[in-house]
User: Which sequence fits this backbone?
């Protein structure tokens, strides 16, 4: 069972007198630029979050936002200037170097952006490398490596060499190496960004499929908002070393914390992210939908919701598993989430309907 990861008030400052720099940062928002003028870089500023067991937590931001530095503090590759990292209740920032190496070898695995495979080792030996470091006997580590490779779709490639594999397959070996150790926490630093778009999407699918079974605690770093929206149970958006918002993909799209987040998300294809629960009006009364026509469930995807709206002559009723009414979605509300032009939702206003969003209920 995966464990909880906690980051508490993390700071990372490079340069002179880092402890004094932290105190200045705690006193004011403008201190980062003042410190930079003095040759001091505040890479991460007061970062706090919790990643629940089995959650994919995505940290995203532009280059220089501090996301990779934050990731390196989570496994002790970079020591925080201030703050704490706890995993499974253990304070990693209080461990000795030897104890930290032990944790990294058994409880935390990392998947890098550029594969980091040994060219002189076979696929099997690359996947087994973390187990070799742990001192696991050869027979067992090869068995576990083969199991991890099979999970990643590489059964039959165990004896191949890295240069015989495509980029996507090499990244699968990197993922298999992380899984073979059976670590509770996976840290993935821009792990798919070096791949071609189609291969990248395949790897995203692979990760989501694996997570359904393995339920690891995962921190995934990316600069790609669409990737973040697709993978993350929750997303942390970073800017200039600070986390400016944490929430689900739908939270960030519908309720951006500030203009920066809003501008970041303006070009996202919302129909791929939103569901009926995110866009419905909940100020309704009644127990059941008062018609025999189509209804939606709270998790009905936005695109399917638009199709239903085009087929019914009123606002779409959203019901739970027992057909209790939990909300309604007028056609104009669908259009409002995508833009002012009705043509952005083809067919959504093709049939007569109640433009005012009449509630569809059986009784008051």
Assistant:
């Amino acid at each position: 069972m995966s464990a909880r990861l906690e980051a508490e008030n993390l700071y990372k400052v490079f340069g002179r007198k880092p402890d004094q720099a932290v105190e200045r940062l705690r006193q004011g928002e403008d201190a980062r630029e003042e410190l930079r003028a003095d040759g001091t870089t505040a890479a991460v500023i007061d970062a706090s979050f919790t990643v629940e067991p089995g959650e994919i937590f995505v940290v995203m931001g532009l280059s220089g936002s501090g996301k990779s530095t934050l990731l390196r503090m989570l496994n002790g590759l970079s020591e925080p200037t201030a703050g704490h990292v706890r995993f499974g209740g253990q304070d990693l920032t209080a461990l000795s170097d030897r104890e930290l190496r032990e944790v990294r070898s058994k409880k935390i695995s990392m998947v890098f952006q550029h594969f980091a495979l040994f060219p002189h080792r076979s696929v099997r030996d690359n996947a087994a490398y973390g187990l070799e470091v742990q001192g696991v006997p050869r027979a067992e580590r090869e068995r576990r490596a083969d199991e991890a490779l099979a999970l990643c779709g590489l059964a039959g490639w165990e004896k191949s060499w890295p240069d015989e594999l495509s980029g996507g397959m090499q990244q699968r070996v990197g993922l298999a190496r992380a899984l073979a150790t059976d670590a509770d926490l996976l840290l993935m630093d821009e792990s798919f960004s070096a791949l071609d778009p189609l291969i990248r999407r395949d790897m995203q699918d692979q990760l989501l499929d694996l997570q359904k079974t393995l339920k690891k605690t995962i921190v995934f770093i990316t600069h790609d908002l669409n990737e973040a929206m697709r993978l993350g149970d929750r997303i942390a958006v970073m800017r200039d070393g600070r986390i400016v918002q944490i929430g689900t993909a739908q939270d960030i799209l519908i309720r951006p914390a500030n203009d920066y987040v809003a501008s970041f998300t303006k070009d996202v294809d919302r129909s791929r992210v939103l569901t009926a629960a995110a866009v419905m009006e909940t100020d309704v009364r009644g127990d059941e939908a008062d018609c025999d026509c189509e209804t939606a469930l709270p998790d009905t995807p936005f695109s399917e919701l638009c199709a239903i709206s085009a087929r019914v002559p009123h606002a779409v009723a959203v019901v739970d598993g027992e057909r209790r009414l939990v909300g309604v979605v007028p056609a104009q509300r669908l259009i409002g989430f995508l833009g002012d032009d009705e043509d952005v939702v083809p067919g959504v206003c093709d049939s007569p309907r109640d433009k005012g969003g009449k509630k569809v209920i059986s009784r008051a």
Summary: The domain at 5-107+183-268 is CATH 3.40.50.300 (Rossmann fold). The longest strand covers residues 41-51. The chain has two domains: 5-107+183-268, 272-344.
